[in-house]
Amino acid sequence: MFQFTTSSALLILLGFYGVTFLLTLTIGKKQENADGYMTANGSVGFGMSAASMTATWIWAASFYAAASSGYKYGLSGAIHYGFWGALMILFIYPFGRRFRKLAPNAHTLAEIMHARHGSSSQMVLAGSNIVGSVISLMVNFTAAGALVDILSPLSFVQGVMIAGFGVLTYTLWSGFRASVFTDFAQLVAMILAAVIIIPMIFFQLGGPTLFEEGMPNLTLEQQDFFSTTAILEQGAPYFVAVLAYAIGNQTIAQRLFAVREDLIKPSFITATIGYGSIVIGLGMLGLLALFAGVTPIDGDLNNLIPQMAATYLPPVMVGVLFIMVIGSLSSTADSDLSALSAIIMTDVYGKHITKNNPDPLKMLWVGRLTMVVAALLGVVFASLKLDILAMLIFVGALWGSIVFPVIVSLYWNRVTNAAFTTSVAVSFVLFLVVRFDLLPIEGAIAMFFELFAAVGGGVVLGLMAFGFFGRMAGLIIGLITAVVLVFFTVGFLREYTVLLSSLTAYGASAVVCTIMTLLSKAPDFDFNSIDQRVIEFHKEEA
Amino acid sequence: MSTFGLTVYIMIWPVLSALVLITLCTALVVDIRNAKKEGKSLV
Fold first, then answer.
1. In chain A, which residue's Cα lies nearest the Cα of B7?
2. InterPro entries per the record (chain B) (predicted)?
3. N or C: more exposed end of chain A, with fewer CB within 10 A?
4. Gap from A283 CA to chain B (nearest CA, Å)
């Protein structure tokens, strides 16, 4: 298999990060302001916003996982990764418009929760955002290490360190503004690579004749576009998990607060199509590998894309793929650094340490210091080669527990802080019980969780319907879905632990939050007060 | 799915990606012009 020499690999990496750094110099200001550093003052245009949203949502794992899915599940595999991921960008935008309307000057979603409920709800959300972003950083640096390791003589740890240092270098000074600005160039590189690489590999493998010759390599299940296995093992759990990512991920929320308010809808729709086409397209490389009878090196599906590229593409195009993957992981990693700095700046320094009266200059340096610490943590954790899949599931569940309480808190004026925090805590504990088999999932216990899972399914579809069609549609679709799902989950879902645990998180949080809210005697909340409590941190110069 | 159908199924994604790229680049040009006109930074 093709490998770069050490010097050419270093040249590509240094060239990539060097050019990116030079790009950020064109927007750098000697005196950055705190709001610009966190959300670019909420005035980013359509092109930049849509590109940044797409680039952030696509990380290195998107390519590898989509291709793995295509290889494992056949015809529908890549769709079951990319389509649901794309749909989640679309799903968040109606809620995003509500968030912006309530708090036009917000920097983080946790900040809005602070204004709505107080410290404990804020810290639940901020804490889960921090854990999620550190894990995401680690995953992306890990992907850099793995790619460098497979395509060059450089070691895994060297790849991790170069990526960590490179991303930090160009993000540190201008923060979110640098992240958004470089996202555009990184996305262009990704799209160009996808547009060239997919057809090249397809025709290298024989073009349409590949399908006639390779069809026997697919099982009947893999040939079925509506494969139940693909839906239950890949599509449904991912659909549920990504829904949580869309709400719980500060990188997405940050772009929501950055885009000009009238451009939220077109930006999100374009990002949906962009994400879907790039990720599903690269996922098709896994399907092509299946047709061609390719066996992944060491049996590791993550090797599929580099392996296909190194086997079927000329060295120049392997270099293009190298840049594409480094671009995708860097665009997500810089977003995670910006997200983490915004959370520490706003939710820790701004709200807790200075009680809403921060020193803007000190605040900026808090953000920069956060980036340095976060990048170091990401590099150290990545070097330890931790099991990232288990961590992703863990964070996905944490976010699954907060989706319903967060959304409902911003529409229903009776939800209380106690209902929010208790529902998150209870549902998270129940998730842990199922996911890690802390109790035997059988008999009445299994039925207990399957009922919650049915409710969870209703919550997922109900929320989606609510976002687009309003309260009544949400309630009706949610209720019908939950009732119908009871017949499909009870006695069946216990075999699919991942899906059962994720849906339990949604269902339990919704049930507990709703019951506690209905029983509460607290006065109704005035949503207008959120705007007064969520403030800008810089003063416009006269 | 027929051979032609499968070919379209594979090739539609790079085509869609290219269309998104054109949309984004056009939008960026508009963004740059607007930013210049208003004397503001692009981000």
1. A208
2. Trnsprt_adja_ssu-like
3. C
4. 10
The ipTM is 0.96
Nearest-angstrom CA–CA distance, B18 and B3: 23
A281 CB neighbours in chain B (<8 A) are: 13-14, 16-17
Q: How far is CA A420 from CA A25, A113, A123, A393, in A?
A: 43, 10, 12, 22
Minimal Cα–Cα distance from B39 to chain A, Å?
A: 13
pLDDT digits over A285-319, tens only?
A: 999 999 999 999 888 887 888 889 888 999 999 99
Q: Which residue has the tokens 């900026």?
A: A364
Q: pLDDT digits over A426-476, tens only? A: 999 999 999 889 999 999 999 999 999 999 999 999 999 999 999 999 999
Q: Do A194 and B13 touch (CB under 8 A)?
A: yes
- pLDDT confidence tier of residue A508, bands split at 50, 70 and 90: very high
Backbone angles phi, psi at A345, to 5 degrees: -65, -50
Cβ distance A47 to B7 less than 8 Å, yes or no, reads no
**Taking residues A410-437, what's their average pLDDT?**
95
| Residue A475 per-residue DSSP state | H
Beta-carbon separation of B43 and A50 below 8 A: no
Instruction: List CB contacts of A281: < 8 A, sequence separation 6 or more.
Output: A194, A198, B13, B14, B16, B17
Q: Is residue A467 a contact partner of residue A91, using CB atoms and an 8 Å limit?
A: yes
Type of residue numbered A24:
T
Which helix (H) or strand (E) element contains residue B42? Answer: none
Chain B neighbors of A181, CB-CB under 8 A: 42-43
The answer for residues whose C-beta is within 8 angstroms of residue A243's C-beta and 6 or more apart is A88, A91, A400, A403, A460, A463, A464
State whether residue A537 is helix, strand or coil. Answer: coil
Decide if pLDDT at A42 tops 90.
no
